[in-house]
Input
Amino acid sequence: MKEQIAELTQRLPGSVPLDDAGLHLIDLALEEDRGEGDWTTRWTVPARTRVHGTIVAKADGVIAGLGVMAAVFLRLDPRVDYDFMKSDGERVSAGDVVCTLRGPGRAVLTGERVALNFLQRLSGIATATRLYVDALEGTKTRILDTRKTTPGWRALEKAAVRSGGGDNHRAGLYDMVLIKDNHKAIAGGLREALELVQDQNTKRLPVTIEVHSLAELDAALEIGATRLLLDNFDLPTLQKAVRRAKKAKPRPTLEASGNMTLDRVRAVAETGVDFISVGALTHSSPALDLSLQIQKP
Output
């Protein structure tokens, strides 16, 4: 089964490989939906029935999660087969066929809702990400996600951000140091927190300091911070922050965050920041409307 799913994802450019954690998530979703059994399907669909289905986009957007969607059906029955008309990261218009599938009718009907839940959710994230990326066209600023993800879904949702053209921030607490207000408060201040990190960072993890004012920015620049997160700065203050940071040697990498809506993200990028992080990509993106249409066997 794992080999079949691995072979399937290799056929899909840009698809996230499904590890044991991803497969476990699929199994949990199927168990939640199916419980003791899909009695409607078992009582209305003869065991030997085979069907042909078509997944169709009902709205414009960007596709993400095809490998996950396909793996749902394969967990129910390895005889389900696919033809993909789209790949993760491709734009679709309403009415476009995303893929077709063939296989045992019971597996297709039982897996339908779970498969579409994954595909619609991840495609919604990719679609929202693409809107932000398109808004920055012509600038050098990149869109980042955050850790504001659905519990258990982080790897999938961050893959969807990549499908939409965005970049991933840290994967978790383990691959980057991000000194925030609560860390500074407990450590005794910005300088104290950074010194504690520098003394113990034997893993050589990248270090970002969150700042909330020009005074904090100046303090961070004075102690040689190399990456700064400018949190909830208004536009005039952000412009001043970028000008000050450009004078530092070396110039720190700048990330803007906080209330990054689509209507203001372009103006923020034009201040000259390197990155804009948008929590809404993973916590508020609406699902892309997709449907599975099954032809009469």
About this structure: The chain has a mean pLDDT of 94.
